[in-house]
Q: What sequence folds into this?
C-alpha cells in the first residue's frame, strides 16, 4: 500500500507561549489519500494477513459513516483483495458518501439490523457470515486487534522519541495501545476519548500493553459522546483551520486538539513540556 511520508509542524499559539509549552502536530492525515492517518497503520498487518490467506478477502464491520470501512475498502481495492463491509442498520436507497465510496471501491455491503449488529462478535453470528461469504479474514469493528496495535506501535517507534507527551484521539483504543507500546516508557501517552462513558476501554488498552503504566485516558472532551459535537467545537475547528491551516474534523481530531488547548490553559502540563499530537486523519476527502 502506498505510503507518503508526513510533515511534523509546530502549532504556534499565544496560549502555548504563555504556558511555556511547545506543541507539534504530526500530519499523519497526509500519509495516504484514502487509507489515511491511524487507519493506514491499523490495517497494515491485517492486510498482510489477508495476503497470506487463501480467500484474499477481508470482512469487517462499521456504522454508515465509519472511517474504518472507508479505509478498508480503499486499501483492499488498491491491493486487489475482496472486501466485505457488514454495516449497522438498514440499507437506504441513497448511499451516503462513505458507503458510496466503499461500494465504488468494490466493497460488498452487507446490512444488518442494529439488533443483530450487537451480536457481531458472537460465534453464531460469525457462522452465519461464513455461510454467506465462505472464508475471509475477520477484522473487528473499528479495526482494533493485535495486528492493528502492532501497526500503530511501529508508527510510534518511527516518531521522534524526545517529546514529553504523545497525544492521540481514542475511539476503540487500538491506536492508543499501539502508541503506548511503541513510544519510550519514560514518556507519557495521553488518549483523548471521543466517547462518553467508555466503560471497559482502559482495561482493554491495558490488555494490549500489560506492562505499561505511562499513559492516561482523558475523558473530559467527548462533547456529548461519539459522533456528537457542539457549536463551540465546530467554531474551534474553523478557528484552528484559519489560524494554523490544518483541517480537523469534529469526531476525533477536533476533540483531541480542543482538549489539548484546554489542558494547557488549565496548567495540566509543567512549564517547558513538549507535546507531540497525532493527526489521525478521518477527513475522508472533506474539508
Ligand atoms: C478511527 C479513528 C480514530 C480512533 O482510533 P481507535 O484505534 O479506534 O481508537 C481516531 N481518529 C480518527 C481520525 C479515526 O478515524
A:
Amino acid at each position: 500500500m502506498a505510503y507518503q511520508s508526513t510533515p511534523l509542524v509546530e502549532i504556534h499559539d499565544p496560549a502555548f507561549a504563555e504556558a511555556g509549552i511547545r506543541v507539534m502536530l504530526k500530519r499523519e492525515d497526509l500519509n495516504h489519500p484514502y487509507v489515511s492517518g491511524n487507519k493506514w497503520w491499523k490495517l497494515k498487518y491485517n492486510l498482510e494477513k489477508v495476503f497470506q490467506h487463501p480467500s484474499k478477502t477481508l470482512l469487517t464491520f462499521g456504522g454508515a459513516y465509519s472511517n474504518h470501512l472507508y479505509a478498508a475498502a480503499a486499501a483492499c481495492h488498491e491491493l486487489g483483495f475482496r472486501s466485505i463491509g457488514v454495516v449497522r442498520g438498514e440499507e437506504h436507497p441513497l448511499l451516503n458518501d462513505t458507503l458510496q465510496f466503499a461500494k465504488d471501491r468494490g466493497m460488498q455491503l452487507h446490512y444488518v439490523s442494529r439488533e443483530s449488529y450487537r451480536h457481531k462478535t458472537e460465534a453464531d453470528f460469525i457462522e452465519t457470515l461464513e455461510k454467506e461469504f465462505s472464508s475471509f479474514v475477520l477484522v473487528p469493528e473499528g479495526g482494533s486487534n493485535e495486528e492493528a496495535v502492532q501497526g500503530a506501535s511501529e508508527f510510534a517507534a518511527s516518531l521522534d522519541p524526545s517529546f514529553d507527551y504523545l497525544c492521540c484521539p481514542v475511539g476503540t483504543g487500538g491506536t492508543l495501545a499501539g502508541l503506548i507500546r511503541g513510544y519510550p516508557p519514560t514518556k507519557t501517552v495521553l488518549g483523548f476519548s471521543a466517547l462518553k462513558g467508555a466503560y471497559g476501554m482502559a482495561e482493554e488498552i491495558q490488555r494490549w500493553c500489560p506492562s505499561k503504566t505511562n499513559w492516561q485516558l482523558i475523558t473530559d472532551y467527548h462533547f456529548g459522546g461519539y459522533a456528537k459535537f457542539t457549536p463551540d467545537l465546530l467554531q474551534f475547528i474553523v478557528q484552528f483551520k484559519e489560524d494554523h491551516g490544518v483541517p480537523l474534523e469534529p469526531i476525533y481530531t477536533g476533540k483531541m486538539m480542543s482538549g489539548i488547548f484546554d489542558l494547557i490553559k488549565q496548567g495540566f502540563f509543567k512549564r517547558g513540556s513538549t507535546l507531540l499530537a497525532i493527526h489521525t486523519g478521518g477527513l475522508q476527502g472533506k474539508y
Observations:
- The chain has two domains: 8-35+144-285, 38-142.
